[in-house]
Amino acid sequence: MPVRRIQPSDVDEVVRLVHALAEYERAPQECHLTSEQLHVSLFGTAPALFGHVAEVDGQVVGYCLWFLSYSTWRGTHGIYMEDLYVDPAQRGSGLGKALMVELAKECVDKGYQRLEWSVLKWNTPAIDFYKSIGAAPLDEWEMHRLTDSALADFAARG
């Protein structure tokens, strides 16, 4: 099967692909993920991150990482897909779709009512792919983020 749950032996390859995604998204300097960090997040004592990988000929060539979200309006969990990446040489092969189908099945099987993610506005190939599977942009919502010194400064003002 080309798509399966991530295993501890996949961590190094997934970290490599995460760094490739950061390069693709024009922000390699912002990606500091290590194999140790990802291993703890996925397989530590209280994992809150989950993932799937796509394989071709036994080689990990794609991945998605996700975590549970919650909708107070729907009263159920959902899945937030943090990353979806397929090696450029494998794009168009259906692996990205297969990874997303696994997440959709996870939602349906567990009664989750949302599968959500973010995409950079300039990433037209991804946006076109998401539209082709029936996804709709949330035009009325704007994502906000606190990080680095802004996060520390705000916490300190508490």
Any overview of this molecule?
By secondary structure, the protein is an alpha+beta fold. It has one domain (3-157): 3-Layer(aba) Sandwich (Aminopeptidase), CATH 3.40.630. The chain has five helices and five strands. The chain has a five-stranded mixed sheet. The model has no long low-confidence stretch (mean pLDDT 96). Belongs to the acetyltransferase family. GO terms for molecular function: N-acetyltransferase activity. Residues 1-153 form the N-acetyltransferase domain. InterPro entries: Acyl_CoA_acyltransferase, Diverse_Substrate_AcTransf, GNAT_dom.
Give the strand order, joined by hyphens, for the main sheet.
1-2-3-4-5
Could you say what the CATH architecture is?
3-Layer(aba) Sandwich
Instruction: Kindly report the name of the CATH homologous superfamily.
Output: Gcn5-related N-acetyltransferase (GNAT)
Please describe the biggest sheet, giving its number of strands, its sense, and whether it closes into a barrel.
5 strands, mixed
The stretches of 5 or more residues where confidence is low (pLDDT under 50) are none
CA-CA gap between termini: 50 Å
**Overall average residue pLDDT:** 96
| Percentage of residues in DSSP E strands | 15-25%
Q: Could you tell me the CATH topology label.
A: Aminopeptidase
Total count of domains: 1
Q: State the helicity in percent bands.
A: 25-40%
Coarse structural class:
alpha+beta
Family: Belongs to the acetyltransferase family.
Domain N-acetyltransferase: 1-153
Pfam families: Acetyltransf_1
Organism: Allokutzneria albata
